[in-house]
Amino acid sequence: MNRHSVTPRSWVICVSFLAVVTIFSGLLQTEAQAEPSDDEILNAVDLARGDSLGIHWNIAVVAKEGGKTTENKLMVSNRAGSFLANYIAPARVKGQKLLKSGRNMWFVKPGVSKAVPISPRQRLLGDASYGDLASTTFAVSYTPTRLDDAKGNYVFDLVAREKGQTYDRLKLWVDKDKLYGVKAEYYSLEGKLLKTATFEYKNKVSRPGGKHPNMISKMTLESGDDVTTLTYSGVTLKGVSWDLFDLSNVMEE
Fold first, then answer.
1. Cα 147 to Cα 82: distance, rounded to the nearest angstrom
2. Which end of the chain has the smaller Cβ count within 10 Å, N or C?
3. In which element (H, E) is residue 179 found?
């Protein structure tokens, strides 16, 4: 036999090896195709925090600082980062309003003819800022850099695209399977850690196609020994007109 001839067994082994390589390459390609892009991940995170057409919910803000507990309750109508919040408790603030329209924000008090401009970064209660009432728009408002994955999470460094965002920079952990934001660290532009947040998603909603049925139910903010929670209830997905965020309309109410 010619020493360079191929036996039937050798031929079978070669064909089998090539088949395995082809299948494995196909699996790798499929896995690569299935990996979501940064925009897809952040859009999914945003969807669990709001809705592009509008959402209504009640938010209870509870702050525990130095052994003292304080609470505010608000009814909030939210759309793509703009919101109108009505204080409903405690009695001393009932009827007051917060309006965020685009990059502008105001405080409105009953019986006062002029609204007071405020910043989303100003303190609402405890570690919660006024801007924390807005549905997050990470995909639009921040430039992402993907960091090394950690324990089943995607990890992003997010830098605000423009000045005036509630936070200049944050580090965000996203659950790989559910595409929910599970943890965030908020930083100043200089890199100082301001506070840490964790998120829960127990509110059920009905979306077309049954996608993304869970929405945020709780955000816990921690800074040292101080803890502030925002609890979301009465969630309703319902279109919100942009007219709701017109300051003149709010002042006429």
1. 29
2. N
3. none
pLDDT tier at 21, thresholds 50, 70, 90: very low
Residue 239: is it exposed, middle or buried by C-beta count within 10 angstroms (0-12/13-18/19+)? exposed
What confidence tens digit (pLDDT) does each residue in 85-133 have? 999 999 999 999 999 998 899 999 998 989 999 999 999 999 999 999 9
What's the pTM?
0.83
Measured distance CA(202)–CA(135) in Å, rounded: 16
The candidate with the shortest Cα–Cα distance to 216, out of 78, 50, 85, is 50
Q: In whole angstroms, give the CA distance from residue 245 to residue 215.
A: 23
With beta carbons less than 8 A apart as the criterion, state whether 203 and 232 touch. Answer: yes
Per-residue pLDDT tens over the stretch 206-240: 887 777 789 999 999 999 999 999 999 999 988 89
What is the per-residue pLDDT for 14? 46
